[in-house]
Structure formats: C-alpha cells, structure tokens
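Crash report, auto-generated. Payload:
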Amino acid sequence: MMSLEALRGQVAVAGVGHAGLGEAHGFTEMEVLAQAASRAVADAGLTMRDIDGLATCSSSATMWSMPVAEYLGIRPQFIEATMLGGSSFVSHLLPAVMALASGQCNAVLVCYGSTQKTAVFGRKEGVKARTLLDPQPFEHPYSPMQPVTSYALAAARHMYQYGTTREQLAEVAVAARAWAQLNPEAAMRDPLTIDDVLRSRPVSDPLTVRDCCLVTDGGGAYVLVRADRARDLKQPPVYVLGSATAVWNRQISSMADLTVTAAAESGRRALAMAGVGVAEVDVAEVYDAFTINTLLFLEDLGFCKKGEGGAFVQDGAIAPGGRLPVNTNGGGLSCVHPGMYGIFLVIEAVRQLRAQAGARQVQGADIALVHGNGGTLSSQSTAILGGPATR
Amino acid sequence: MQTTPEALASRGPQEQYFAKLADGHFQIQRCADCSAHQFYPRTLCMHCGGTDLAWTSPSGAGTVYSFSVVRRKPEAGGDYNVALVDLQEGVRMMTRIDDVAPDGLRIGMTVQARVVRPEGQPPLVVFVPVEAA
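Recovered output after restart:
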C-alpha cells in the first residue's frame, strides 16, 4: 500500500488563473469559469487539449462536472465533483494528487465560477431554493440568517468561553483590509479601522456587516500535473506537500463544541503528510467567511492555543508586517467572495510561493498553509503547498 | 394531526416527532443499547449505531449554550433571537428564547421548553427563562 507521505510533493500546481472578480455583468457563471480555466491552462504553458482530469462543483447545479466538461470541450479520465461548500477546491487536491500519481490522468483542471452578485438567480434566490432542495427541519423554523447566524453563534460562544473581544474579531477584518490595500485586484481597498467594524450595520449579533465576507462574482482555476513535468513547464512549480479533509457535522446545532472545528483534524493530517510543523509556515491563507473563522482556524491548526486566537491577531499581528502573514490577497473579507472562496486560497498561495504577489509579496515564502471551510463550519480542508525549493 | 398511534408507529422518526409536537408533546430519542439521548430524531443512534430507539419526554430544563440576535428592519418584523440550548438530557437543539428582551439574554441562563403552535405554521419548541416559566 502506498502511504500518503509518499505522495508528498509528487504533484505540483503548474498554472493559476481567475476571471470576473467583483462584478461580471453580462457573463454567466460558466463563462467566468471558462475564462479562468483558459488563463490557468495558458499560465501553465499548456493547452485545453492537455487537460484530461477535471475537478469542479457548483452551489446550484448538482451535475455540474458534466456541463463543464461539455463547455470546455474536454473528455476527462478523472472527474472529481465532491461538493463540500467553500472548502471544495482545497479538498479536490488529494484525489487529484492520487489520480495523477497513479497515472489515471496527466493534467487536472480545478475550476469554479459564480455570478451570484449580478445574476438574476443570485445569492438570495439560492439561499431560498436550498431551504426546499436541502431542508433542515430542525433549524429552518427558527429562521437563522444563514450562513451568518451560525458563525455568530460560534463567535458568541468563543467570546463567552475565552473572553475574546469584539475588538479582537474586528482586527481580523482590519488586517484583511490592509492586505487588500496592497492588492490591486481586491474589491474593497478603502481604509478600515476597528471602530469602523464595530460601528457598521449589525447583522447577527455579535457580527456586523464588516465581520462578513463580501458578496461578489468571480471565477478561479488551477492546473495540477506531476512534479517532474511541472519542472519543465512555464512557471516555477508549487508542490502539493500535504492535503486532508475532515467533516464532523453539517448543522451548527449538531456541532459538539462551537469553539473547535474539524480543522483540528484536517490540519494535523495535512501537516503530517507534508512533514511540516506550523512553525515552518511562512504564509497562511485561511477561509475568512467571517472574522471568527480566522481565530478558530489559527487555533485549530495549531498557530496558537485554543482560546488564544483573539490575542494572537491583536496589534496587527496578521496584517502586513505582522508575525504571521494571513490572507495576503485581502481574503474573502476584502478581496473576493463569489459564494465559494476555496479556489482563491490556492491561487493566492501559489502566487506567494512563486514570488509573483507584487506589493503584497511575503519575502522568502517557501511554505504556505491553505485552509478551506465549507457550510457552517461544517467541512474543513487543509493543504500544505511548497515553493520550488521545498522538494 | 389525526394519525392513530398504530399508523404513526409505522412512520419515520421525523414524521413521528412532528406529529407528537402537533399534539403538544416534545419528545426526544433514547438509545436502548448505549442509553444516550439524541436530537434530532434519527433511524439509528448517532453514538453507537444501535437501532433500538425509544421516545422519551425530556424534563424540558435547559441551558443557553449560545445565542444571536438577528437584526431585521422593523417593517420586516424587527429583531429576533436564534439560540442553541443544551437540554438536561445532554442534547443540543436550535431554538428561540421567548419572553425575554434581547439584552436580557445570557449564555448559561437556565430555560424551560415550551411547545408553541403559531397560527398557520408548524408547531415549534421554544424556551422561556425559568423565572418566567
């Protein structure tokens, strides 16, 4: 039997691309997906004809991999369409690594697109439709404003249990904005202070609108090939060193402890596969759908002890120039958030590890931790990516 | 609901739960194999996988584990709360705390279950502060 450790660094991200960030007026989600896919394939120095593996999923279309293959004109030998919400495009890494390592296919395209902001059937309609298509009869009758209320419940419990403050939560949004100000592609680049976050519109206590991720359009894609091939391609290879996914529950009311997510398990397994300790991580891209997420994941992934996430992020510690660069593109809070954000975590980590991140470049970034979250703290997927020198 | 007890027993646990609730009875499941309670009702025990589950009436006593006040425009009905309550039997459920102002809500406060049947809507388990119960 092949061990997971033996798969460390066997596969690399060879290309990344995105399209339609912000508002993609006049485009469908398939069109922004395909534009991002074309860019990722071109970035790798490949053509769409080279793609024989496909990983994708959609918030609405349950059979999404089929129209995507049809639209792109590809006949994939490997299809991965596991839908875990926002963590999906991080969780697609390990199955893709296995498919490439086994020779099932030679180039996997991971891709996503959404026009939830500008489409007629947008985010609001999607939330409404899901109550019918995917009923939660033990939560829906109480009208939680999903997903924010679930995260608000976790934030309230974290504050109660560990003394985490509103100001500490706001630090997460302020740090994300400071990174976004260095990123010309980010949607929100105006200055933001802790006071601004606290005084913005309350949504679901204790969270305000500035504790919540953006609602934007956008498509993203990346291409995976075996490491030996990646070294001969256009871009510096970014190796997949470790990857793991964990799901413990779907509903917030079924979560055993609202202050401990399954990231504790996915992180431990991904780091073990990579043979990397968190102290070696140069840059962390963690799914900041809401400010509480960043605190929970920094704790669960082992950057600090449980309950100390608030203190960890204080005084600009995860902002540019801080002790740990987190969400260097501006994150879901300030850069882009088209329904499911996971693919953008990978894209940003790849740019950092290739040293192509412009003004926001983290100097000497060799190891990146990528962490995706899906549902309402439901699915957790961690990946460890390494720059050209790490294999 | 006019389902006879015999007919109801042949239905799935979810339908049974809501039928009981419609009659004003809030019941949860207890596993005959491992003795653990569970919520929401299932066809198997989430703790041990056992399938010998019996309905039991919880005491209704609970503790607020977390809550959030959802902000809504007055014209849309105004603010309301969503809470998670831990029952004495060891299970947690999403619910609402009635008979209390938003600034009177506290994590850790003791509450008591109440079945409400709002006009034109399915029956619902809510909780009220013990002082008000």
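Post-recovery validation: The first helix of chain A runs from residue 29 to 43.
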